[in-house]
Structure formats: structure tokens, C-alpha cells
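Quick question: what would this complex look like in 3D?
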Amino acid sequence: MMVKMKQRVWGMMMLGAALLMGACVPEPIPLQVDQPDPKLVLASRITPSGRIYVMASRTFTSLKMDDGGENLANDLLEEVMVNSGKVTLTCGGVTEVLTPVATGVYRSEKNPLQIGKEYVVVVHDYLTGEMVSAAEPMLRSVRFEKIKPKLMEKDNVIDAEFSYSFMDPPGESNWYMINVYSKREREDDDEFALDGDLSQGSQVLKHAILLRDTGRDGEEISGEFVVPAVLASDSLTVSMANISPGYYEYLELRQKADNYLTTLLAEPVNYPSNVENGYGFFTTHSGDSWFFDLNSYEVN
Amino acid sequence: MRVFVRVFGLLLLLFTTDVMAQQRVLSGVVREQSTGEPMPYATVSIAEQSIGTVSDENGAFQLTVPEGEVTVQVTFVGYETMRITVPADHRGPLNFEVKESASQLRTVEVAAGQSRQRDELESTQMSLIHLPVKDLQGIPSIGGETDVIKVVQLLPGVAQGGEGTTALFVRGGDADQNLVLLDDAPLYNIGHLFGFYSVFNPDALESVTLLKGAFPVEYGGRLSSVLDIKTENGAEHFGVSGGIGLLSSRLTVKGPLGDGRTTYQLSGRRTYIDQLAGLVGNNIPYYFYDLNGRVSTKLSSKDRITFSTFYGRDVLKLGNQETQTDSVGSSAEPEQVDFGFTLSNQSNSLRWDHRINNEMLMDVTLIHTQFNYDINARFDDNSLMIQSDIRDLGVKAGINWYPSKGVRYRFGVEGIQHDFRPNVLEQEGDLIRIEDRKGERIGTQEVSVYGGGEWDVIPTLFRVTAGMRVSGLKTGSKTYVNPEPRLGLRYTVGENAVLKAGYSRMMQYMHLVSSSSLALPTDLWYPASDRVEPQRSEQASIGYSTLIPGLKTSFTVEGFYKWMYNLTEYREGSNLLLNDNFEDELLSGTGRSYGWEFLLRREEGRLTGWLGYTLAWSTRQYDELNGGLPFYARFDRRHNFSAVAIFKVSPRLSVSALWVYATGARFTAKTGNYLVPNPDNTGVDVIPIYSARNAIKLSSTHRLDLNVIWKNKPNKRFQGEWHVGAYNVYNRASPFRIDVLTTSQGDFQYQQPGLFGFVPSVAYNFKF
């Protein structure tokens, strides 16, 4: 009986293999999904020297890109960048028309950073007649009191361990962004690069920290962070800025989506925006930047 | 608590006034002789008189008889009738052990179905569907093996999740709101193979009972349903049964031990997808297996001990290590990619049934259950390890008291120690930047006491079930205590028709933290805590049930309205798995569901099966999701229809068909994108724009499955049967997500893929 049963099991496996080969994959069913109308998008950057850059573009539907597509087609980039617009920046009653410096990128030539003043950016797209605006105050700058790296080598890998401290302004809630950049040569295949101060070589963001002063109002805030796998020949720039809570929330969500697995596993989110009737985030902040040439530090 | 005791005492006084004078009460238990197991639904009556009753689910009965000598008889179709003459002065228990009648075996299932339908009609319990597993074995299924969970998904009030999964969404609830009990022990994961298979080996099971509302007091701990699954008893004679399917094989042995007072059953099942794929040149390094065991022993005429155990394990081990060669031909560092996981699932229960006296039966059960998973991934120097673990150790004790005819009380207490270790994370390398998390063990203690009863307020016309359960949880520095009142009403509107109504409040002291859009095997159970409140629901239901004797059919329509509180969802944008602080990411919200369910069911005759239809709505509201606006639940399927038919063409040939239709599930789809400069200012990041939450409805799903069963000649010792069938006969996709894909014209289009198309199956079952 056991031999007979073994024969049946083997027969079933052969039959199963044949049937599985004969199984069908069903045709996917097309679906109509209402597409949102395109809207204007604003984004901004402030260089360490205090120049404000604004990028203006349009949203585009999901049907412009394959789900698996990683690289943006150049024609799509051209299509969504706003080149036919006027971008103005108003601060302290003075309005400046920003200078286009690259596809969809505009630069302020005049505005020095004015602490405590509100900056209002307006984008008017001549092609569609659309207009969007965003306003953000320039918060007071907060400077490091102390920041220094210590290079630690283990298994032929050098980590830069930074310790820092700064004084939190009393009587107000503050949100901070600390970024660590290493210098990097610009590559030919860069899709997009801000011109001007960064054109001699872009900065690679090596590390980013978001901090709040909850429970530490008016006190010295100190901490440590590690920038892993640096080279003794690297130069690092550490910048700190006092940012708005809205921008903090925006960055926090972006940070959560900052690796491949989280992209797959994160819950859907529509990022917060301070652009009226549009998308993106217009930010202004005055940073405190420290430059470190790691060559001048001893490796422990 | 004191108030509760007083109120409950008052209720007892109100409803126990129907004990009749000048009569005496006979009580006892009916058991099956070969196994010693209690025998529900047996008719106990006074010979040649119109006095009788039906034994309950514990085999216990109460019979009020006139003073003087009487002859009590027990009948059950398929069993020999047993008679005992009871003297006038008899005051002791009456215990019957009835013997199977070989000549009547064929009619057993018919009468059992009829008796069950009548019993369900006459009970105050509503929202209950009982499924004997033997009746399900003709229903078509993928792979040719009956899956009780897939059958439960066909019932009214139950919405399926994604195609092929074992998730249950009962009356608009969520997948974690179902108390799945295997011989009294709860199971936290009921799926193998990402949920395509349930963990229940059909050969090991006796019956499945689904409760969707008006919950009896003895059940608690989940909001939306109780799925009470019982394994089969051992047997008087040694026997072997099993099945060989396309994807797995099963084997069960059962029989007596020693002098026959002890019986056992052992079942095992293993897949051979890995072996099968190898035959066609593919590598699928995945398998699962599960084992069931049950031993039952009769210690005395009053005591029985039953031990039941289950263990299941899923194993996936993908590995690839190859040496890369650079352009000049020298060997480079090896590129190593490994991925694997194991899921382990086990439950144990040890139950002692004890008859205290003629009127009282006690049961005490020790339970243990554990579920854990372990995921490992490695890519060169980068590695990620994720573990999660939940285990329960508990005790349940209850007393059934039958003080007089038509009156039943149930009292009990439960205590469970829950241990959670929800998320252990360890990683190396730069690819995934997240801090390690040790996964501190979290212990909580859940205790419940309950009491309730069932009475005829107006005999044969109006019957009431009422009770109170008080549950509590000690967690962290907080203790939650919550009353859970229960009520059931039955009003007879005709010989074969009743109206029923029910209300129940349910508490759930744990949450399944899962993706809103992905079906992952890595969902995390997380306890109520200082910050995360326990879930709560209130459900009211009404119903009408009738038997149609001419058609041997029952028809039930039920309406329900359910409010749910303290439901949890992840905050928008939060990470599902690589998360080092759950409580910061969890949001609390409310839910509401309502609808109507229709079930036309035939359990007798050559044609059996059912038609089920559900019309229902289910919404959620969270202040911090979807702009605070209410949104439809992910599996808010407006219409659910199922038709199941099994036709016995001849004693050796049966054909069956199954057709299901369901409104599409809902989805939060990416509808647009925009660009922002990346942090390095060297390029742009693409930021998605999503629709409102669950705003997109996928296409409806429907499919037809067929099955043919051919048995060998009856009266042979070796019984074999072939099952030949097909899943999704017309090969329609059941959408489970939305992709944007390129069409043949080069455009982009939203498309909804399905998992399974037409899948033929062959299985061979045997018994000797």
C-alpha cells in the first residue's frame, strides 16, 4: 500500500507541475482615475552666502511616468518647469523680480537676508495665467557655540564624531535643522543644479538632523552625531538653521521617506505646503555654517 | 462591582420565577459511546408523551417531568435509541451513552442539518453561522484542498481582503477584530504563504462557528467576530485519512489508546511547492507545514480531560552568492544577496470538563498561544533583521447551570498574561539608516468575569438572553476596566419563524498595526498602553429567520449598526516596519458600519449550499487623516454576493460550483507628482500626490470555481475520492492594487493586476 501511495504522490507532483504550467495569469483590468488639474509648485533654497533661489514648476499626473521609471525624461522636465513666468520676492516693502538662471530656477540678486522680516514670493505663469504665492518669516539665526569633529577609525573605516552646543533663544519655540555636507564635483549627468554659489561643486548631504527645543527653552542644547565613512581628505560643512514649524514637519516627513525600503513601506502622505493654491514649500532661514578640513584632524 | 452583583441578582430574581410546582427536573449529559464526547442536539423525551428537549452544545439537558415513574428516551438520527426507566424517587443524574447505528449512517448528516437549523431558530442567539467541516469538503478551492477560512469569507457579513488572503473583515470591522479560537486557544495569525492558505488543516477539524454580533458573555477580547473552531475527536477504531493535493499533502491518524477511554488524533500537512517548482526548473525555496494533535480521556463518569495542540511554521530561504568579475578579468568581492523569513505559530489548550451535579457543568481550560516571525535580509555588507513575538498564557473557567426547564446560566472568569515583543530591529551597513531597536518585552494582564442567562419570559413565545461581562487590562501604569453588557431577544412569529434582536458591547485590548494598503506577513500586534487606548465597539442588530420545511431550507435576514472607537491607523507618511517608536506614529479614530445580510441555506438533500448577499457601508474618521474628513474603510465593499451549490449526482459523483461577486476594495492612489530640488541640489526628487484616503474604488471582483468529486465504490475498507476542479474558470483578475504601466501604444495607463487566473487543480483524498 505504501508503494502505491508513493506512486500516487509522485504522480500528483508531476501532474501538479504540468497543471501549474497550464495556469493562466489574468489580464490586468484598466482603470480610469480622475486626474488632478496641474498646479504650480514652489521650492526654495538659501545658499550659505545668503542668496535665495526659487524653483517654479507644475505638477504632472501619474500617467506621465511609469511606476518603475527611475529617471525623469528630459522632455518631461522641460514640460513641467516654469520658464514662462515672473517670480517676485517681496521683503520689507521692496519687491524684486528674480533672475532666471536655469530651467525653472530663479535667483534673488539684491535681497540681503533680513532677520524678523516676512518674505513673500509670487509666481505668475504667463502661459497659463496661474498665480501662486507663499510667505515665510526669516527667523533669527542661531549659531553654534561649539562644534568640533573627532575622527575615529575602526576596521579601516573612519567615522567623524561631532559634538556641538548652542544656546536656544528664550521665550519662544524653536525648530532646528543641522545639515552636514561634503564637497562633491559636479557631474555631467546631474539633472538639475542650482547655479551661482554652488556651481563650483555641489554639496553632498551626508547627514541631516532635526531638533526641537521642547523642554529646553532658553537652555544650552548640546549633542553628538556621527558622520560615517568619511575620508581623511574630505572637507565637511556643517550648517545649522532656525526653521519654521511647517518646514520642520515637511522635512521630517521627507526624512522618513529617505531610503528604499521606507519608500516601499511608508504610508501614503501628501506633504504639507505653505504655497497658496499650489504645492511645495517656500522656506527662508539664515544658517550658521562651519567648515572642517578633516586633513587637519588627527585620526584616533 | 457591588452594583453589578446587585443588578445581576435582581435579573435572576426576575427571570427565574417559572420553575414549575408538582413536577421534578431530570438532568444529565448525553455522550457518544465510542468517544465519550458530549453530544449536542440529541432529543431527550418522555416516551409516548409530548415532553422533550434537546441537549445543548455540552450534551447537557434539563427535562421537567411529572411526578412518578417515567421512561426517558434519547434519540439522534444515526444512533440507536436509548431508553431508561426512571423511578419516582430518582434524584440523581441521568447520563446516556448512545451508540452509532451502522444502518442509519447515511441519514445522519441530513438529520443533523435539520436539527441544527431548528436549534438555531429556537435559540436567542443571532448572527451565528455553524459550518460542519464535513459539509464543506465539496466546495471548490484553489489547490483542491478545503480551506475553512476561504469558506467563511463566502458568508454574508464577511468581506474578503485582497485576493487569496485569509483576512476577514466582519461587518465593517478590521482584520484584527476577529477572535479566532482553535479548541479555545486564540490564534494571532491564521495564514500560511502570505495568507493564501489558512493554518487550518481540514482533516483535523470538526466544525467552525462564526459569530458576528449579539455575542454571548463568554466571548470577549475582539470587536467584530468570534470564529470558534473545534478539532475532531479521536475514534473508537484506528483509522487513517489524508489527501494529496497539488501544493500540499495531509495525513491524519486517529484511534483509541489503552482500554478505549482515551482517544487521539494526529494530523500533519506540508507543502511541496519547492519540490514542484524544481520539477519545472524553478527555484521556490518556500514551504510550510503544520501539525495538529488532540488527546481526550475520560477520567470518570464526571470528568473528561482534552489536550489539543497546533504548531505551524513557514520557511522562506532565498540566497544568491556570486563572484563578480571586473572588466580586466580579475575576481572582485563577492556579491551576496540573502533573504529569508520564518513564521511560527502555535497554540495549546488543556480542558477539563467536570459535572458538578445534575444541574451544573464546569469547564476549566489552560491556554497557551504564540506567534512570532523572523525576517533576515543581507546585501553584501548590509543586513537587516526584524523580529516580532506575541505569546499568551491564560486560564478560563466557566460553569453552565441548568436550574429548571428552559433556563440556563453561564458564569465564568478568564485571565490571560499577554507578552508582546513587537519589533526587534538590527541592521548593519549604510543602505538602510535606522537605529537598532531591542524590542523591549511588554507584559499586560487581561482579566474578565462574566455572568448571564437565558430564560423564557413567555414560554415558546418570547425568550431573553442577558448578561454582563466586565473586562480589565493592567498595562504600564494604567488599568482599564470596562463593562460589556450583552442582550439577546427572540420573539416567535409563527411555527417556523422568529424575530430576533441583539446588542453587545465589546472591548479589545490590543491592536494589529498594519499597512493601510499592503498585505504583509509582518503585521505587528501591539497592546493597549498608557497612551494607546483599547478598542471598543457597540453593535445593535435585528433579524428575521424562518425555516421553509418544504424546501428543507432556512432563510435569515439581519440588519446591524456598529460603532467602533479607538481604532488605530499609522500617521500619514510613517514607516510601517522600520519604526522605532510606534506610539508616536499611531493615531486614534472612530469607525461606523451598517448594513443588511441575507442568507438562504439548504443543508439537506442532494442539492445543498447557500445564497448569501450583503449590502453594507463602513467608514472611518481620524482627526489627523484625510483632513479630518470621514473616509471609506479599505474593504468597504458595498455589495457582496456568493452562491455555493453542491449537487450529489449519484452516491459516487458530486459536482459543485461557487460564484462570488464583490464590489471593489478601496485604494489611496497616487494621482500626480511634483518636483523639488534634492538635498544635494544636484537633481530633483519626485514627490507623489495622493488622492483622498481610499477615494479610488477598484473594479469589482467576480469569479466562478468548479469542482467534481468521484468516489470509489462504497463498502470498501479503503475509501478514495478524486477532486478535479478549477479556480477562476473565466480567468478574470481580482484587482488588489493599481499600477501605472506602459501600454502597447507607449502611453501610460492605470491597470489593476490580479494574482490568480484560471488555476486547475486535482486532489486525491483517502480514508481507511
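Answer marked as accepted. The mean pLDDT of chain A is 80.
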